[in-house]
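Exercise 7. Predict the joint structure of the components listed below.
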Amino acid sequence: MSRGLSRRTFLRGALAGGGLATVGLPLLDAMTNLGGTAHADGTPFPQRFALWFWGNGTHPGSWAPATTGTGWQATGLLAGLAGLEDQIQVVSGSKLATKGVNNPHVEGACGILTGGNPVLHPDYASTNNDWDYMTVPAPSLDELAADLVGNPGRRSLTLGVTALHGVNGPGTAVRYTSHRAPYVYNAPVFDPVAVFDELFGPRPPDALRASVLDAVLEDGRALQARLGAEDRARVELHLEALRDLELRVREGTVDQTCASPTAPVSAASYREKARQHAQLVAYAFACDLTRVATMEFSSPASHVFYPDVYGSQLVYNGSPTSFHEYEHNVGYDSSVLTGLAYFHDVFGDFLRELRAVPEGGGSVLDHAVVLGTSEVAGGAGHTFEDFPLFVAGGGNGRLRPGRHVRLNGGLATRVGLTCLRALGDTRSGWGSEQLATTSEISSLLAP
Amino acid sequence: MTRRPSACPRLLPALVAACVAGCLGPAAFRVDGDDTGTPVVADTPAPDATGDTAAPVDTGPPPPPLRPAPAGLRTLTPAQYVASVRTVLGAAGDGLEVPSLGAWATSVGAAQGGIPAGTAVAYEGAARAVATAVFDDPDRRAALVDCTPAADPADPCTAAFVAQVGRRAFRRALDEAEQARWVAVAEAVAAEAGAWEALRLVLSGLLQSPSFLYRVELGEPDPTAPPDAPRLRYADTELATRLSYLLWGDAPDEALLDAAEAGLLADPTGLEAQVDRMLADPRAAHGLEAFLRELLQVDGLQIVEKDEALFPDFPQQREALADQLLQTALAAVREQGGFRALFTTRTLFVDDRTAPLYGLPSPGSILPSRVTAPAERAGVLTTAGFLALHAYPGKTSPALRGLFVRKTLLCHAIKPPPAGVVTVLPDRTDQGLVTTRELVAVHQDTPACGACHRYMDPIGLGLEQFDALGRYRQTEHGLPIDPSGELDGIAFADGAALGGLLAQHPALLPCVAAHLVAQAGGFTVDDAHPEVEALAVGQGGAAAMLRAVALSDLFRLAWPADPEVTP
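Solution:
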């Protein structure tokens, strides 16, 4: 696996080139060229990818901006994105053409995140409970992105805010948005304080601890030699994580050239917690601690209450009810629309935090590809037409933000392929079976 | 673990007619995704439902002979991880906090999934924390290391430590390369930071090694296999590991490893001797507890959500409800004759946090007390923990409760709502508030819903006198609650009576046997297979069924993981 541009390599180069003068300055501003398109030594900013996911969709047919092309206005459900219009490409009118043979949340999550249909391990052939047993057919977009943009020492970050969807089995299709392989997921970290500590807490190099990890890795390689292909691959993913850890431990994570964000304090609301995570992602990108982040604000099909929005006021037939249940029972009433608007408020916060961290002449958001989406278009009736899709950020000049594109029934998976293209992918297409596509949306990409 | 249509004859008569409707059908999902599933057929009568319920109905070919699970890797479940760390530490770990880590809470998941990056890092942190706690405490350190190490390449104390602790951690003797590797780590650390620090770091390494975190069960050629069968048997220490996690929920002890290394487990008499020793050991309670924890999905109480306004005390009750559900189940099975008693036991466990949920006086302690259940309750289905687990945050769900009984306790497959079916219940607010029973009646009136819901709702409605946190209630929105229901053609009066019917249901013990095989082997099996049914021995006594599983071919033998690889 390509490790891409190593942060260590970059730092060594910067220090050799007189970068020491920047110690103590916030971020990398002083280390960029005048145009802000690259570091002072000419190294381009790394490409980054962020996935921002929420469960239960939007209000199909009414969520999208009124006008297409440039000059779209963030109003209605999208009001929380106001002021960010020039950073976002809205893609409306697409369809995620699920097969309609499994649970719709399961099919939708697999479809939009991996471009395929849910699968069941042959050992579970005697079961048929979708979310208890099914998983994704392929790696999710964030994992493909990690292969493309390189690994500066931490392959990706996976963050969560609200409770994950409950599953009583090995099924991972709706519980987790980030998958490395079928049944192998990246579990979100929920606590911003822990994420801060892990990313920015000072860690001096520890050669002895690293030597223990080396021996653990040798144990793992010796084990692999005895295994069949499938089990060998399972262990490989584990060892890959240990190799990343070993590198961080051996070199330490004290980085004098990169400022840290403010340490978060325990947050009372989901929205504040999500904002803290967003800030950590922005600084992790800026400091090149990782280049890929997944934010699972809520799981596919999540049964969350959203007290930020409702307190415990969401009541159906006399009983407090989760957003998912309420939406199923009542449909798109004003309470549901308030919740849908709130998801976009929180997504807007994510983009604002990325924009708030300067980099070169612009911001981290200019050097990132951000995909915001959900697993269904409409939660109330499990519909898949007019799928919610937002491609934000400048993608290091690969994207053309600030526009609204209406697809008129085109495949929603084209947006995933477009993101991969923006990250430099050259594969012939993405997805499988009826969701496969070879045609990116070229109007989203810079010529 | 689902029942095929051919299992219909074992069902009670009323279900026979309906059993081949699409809802309780064979799963046709395939991993290659060509044809993914049998669509739910609306409420069509079974073509072979002649009304002659006395004669067995044969709806298909008998299931093919059951193959044992493929050999391979399994990760430790969180409970197995905690127990295994403690076993490695022995007395040095008494009272030490070991975090409950692991990617896969279920045995079946642990046989498929890997260890994600975040979990790998967490294991490393936990291993270092545990090692530090042991070596920073002179008494713990002395309990683990009975010699004084020296910073010397030939130090016998270090070599003995690596061999002994390594054998407990890897559940087998270290091979030469492993022994040399970890002694070399110790030597390098000792030169720089001292011999004690070296042992601390070795311990932190062994406790995160893949050979500790994975159960390596690869099998070896089975000398008793027919010539053309690529059948494997688990090798001596592999079988010891399987036995100990099944019967004790824990890693093997020295005696079991000794017996395995002496080749005694390959001999039926030697195997029986070990199984009987283990079942008579107090640790057998932990094995049964681990099984019941998974069967009853007790860990779900860690993540279930409850409405804060309705149930403000739930955050303080969550853990107690889980512990007491498990204690109630364990006491029933161990003291009252086996798995049937799960559903009839009148013994509950409560503490000051949970007694109010039962309308019982507080026992004056946050330690659980054994009490006699109030008259309206019997069995685990009427414990607050179970009832809270299978309900929405603010309201009950007859479907969820019925689904658990149907799917998990009787091993009947129920398909999820098909895509395209609108699951919106009709708006009844113009008629004022109605009971949940009235609200879900629409399921039975709509063929697309009723095809499945008629196997769930009539069970769950019997538990309607218990709210979303399991509190007893006789009215809902001021309207009287009718707690009657029906299980496979037999009407019952209320939740306590439901437990009595379930305890005697002919599908119960085969289904429990299927769960035992699934947890023991990490793969799902069909409870209708004769090989599985044969494990439902006697009247469902736990020790007898566990013994049958441990001695069965399904447990001792394996299938090659890679079919193209001939062992």
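Discussion. The longest strand of chain B covers residues 72-75.
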